[in-house]
Every structure is written in C-alpha cells, then in structure tokens.
Design brief:
The protein has helices spanning 14-23, 39-57, 89-94; strands at residues 63-71, 74-79, 84-87, 96-108, 111-129, 135-157, 161-182, 185-207, 212-223, 227-239, 242-254, 261-276. By secondary structure, it is mainly β.
Length: 277
Amino acid sequence: MLVTRRPKLKQTSPVSHWIKRLYKGNDITPNPFKGRKTGLLNAASFALATTVATQAAAQDTWEYTGYFYLWGAGIGGETVTGQNVDVSFSDLVDNLDFGIMGALEAKNGPWAVFGDAIYLNISDDEDAAVGPGIPVSVDAEVEGLVFTAAAGYDVVSDSQIRLNAFGGMRFLDMETTVNVETGMGSRRLKDTISNWDAIVGLRGNYALNSDWALSYYADVGAGESDLTWQVAAGVEYNINNWALTVGYRHAEWEIDNSATLSDLEFSGPYLGAKYKF
C-alpha cells in the first residue's frame, strides 16, 4: 500500500532518474517474447553436461574451488526510446538493500563444471512536485539475478597454462517496479526481463611464477536475447589453498523482448578470493 507523503522537493537520485528514463514514452505492458530461439542451443548444452557427468564418473578425485568476490559494477545500457542508462557503482551502493555474489567450480581430471551467481536488490523513493503545487511520491525497486552455469574440458593443462573450453547457459532476470502517487490517485508500473541464453567460451589462467598468475574469461551466446557476451581478466596471488584476485569484468545483453530496455550492461572492477578444497 502506498503512503501519501507530505509534498516536498528532493534532489533526484541517479537511480530514480534511471527509472524515469526506463518508462519515459513507453507502453508499460511488457511485450510478449518474440519467439523461442534456445531449443537447439540448450539441447547442445545439456548434451555437453551429460557427457561431462559420464566421463567424470570414471574418475576418482573431485576438486572444488569456491569464489567469493565483490564486483564494483555500474549499470549501463539504452532504453527502447534511445535514452542512455548510466548508474554508477557508488549510486548502487547508496540504494542497495541486499546483494550476494559468488561462484563454485567442481573439477575432475580435464573435465569441469561451474556456476556463477549475482543477486542485487536496490530501491529508492522520491518526493517532488510536478507543475505548480502538484505533489508526486515515487517508490522504485529493481531486483536482478544473473546466473551462469557451464561444463567444459581442459584443452591445455600443464604447470603453467590452463585453457578450458566450455558450453552452458546464462539466465538474466530483472524486475523493475515503480509506484507513483499524486493527489489525483496512484499507479503501479512494472517491467520484467527473464531471458535464457546458451553460451560458449574459453577460460583459464597463466602462471607467472609459484605465487602470481593471470586469469582470463570470455563467452558469447544468444537465445531469448539477441546477443549476450562477457569478458573478464585479472591477477591472482596464491597463498596455500587461497588466492586473492583483482581484475575487471564486463557483461552485456542486446534485448528485444523488453518494454523498456534494448541494451543492458554491467561493467567494473572486481576484488575477491578463492579457496580450493
């Protein structure tokens, strides 16, 4: 239930400004999906995962690595009306209600499966005046999940270089809700993006010496998104079973099934640690 606030002027926050741009000039009714394009690609990804499970069953030793990190990413992109979206990481932190990031890899011989998840919930509210003395109260919330899962095989693996070729899927789920209340009534605006995409890529590391290493990751795919891709590169410092890592990561989607966004991207530095067990 919306609560009417005493009219007052308040400086517009970057998150509220982004929400306004999302809905400016748009029909808020989400467009139906323009067709499923993922059937064959998802079938191929499932077949690869089944192959990994079958081959790994013949091995005896599983090795696990947990990744814990903070990705200082801002949100960028473009609305369907051509408006730019630009929310910095500091603005996201100011309005962050909850967030969690992490990844897990299971490796058996040259075969590996891994998953990576990011969840964010941000909200903002604003009281302002539209026109001469017309109070407006706006409450906005953005909830987002990005989950990647894949299986791969080490095409190169020795004491210095690891190169893993993989295939899998990525799920993007983002829900934007805006409650607007004026003296003449209230309105609730909502848009949801929920896209499954098949991906293929390469990842690995290059040991500089016993302590330091370079890490790299790249994937590309499509499905319910026209295109999605992600790249990352970093430096790792090894301490026994632990490794500290710092680097830069970029993920992007070209979308045609949203009433508000045509492009979406997350980009920024990351800092984290991983533990082998």
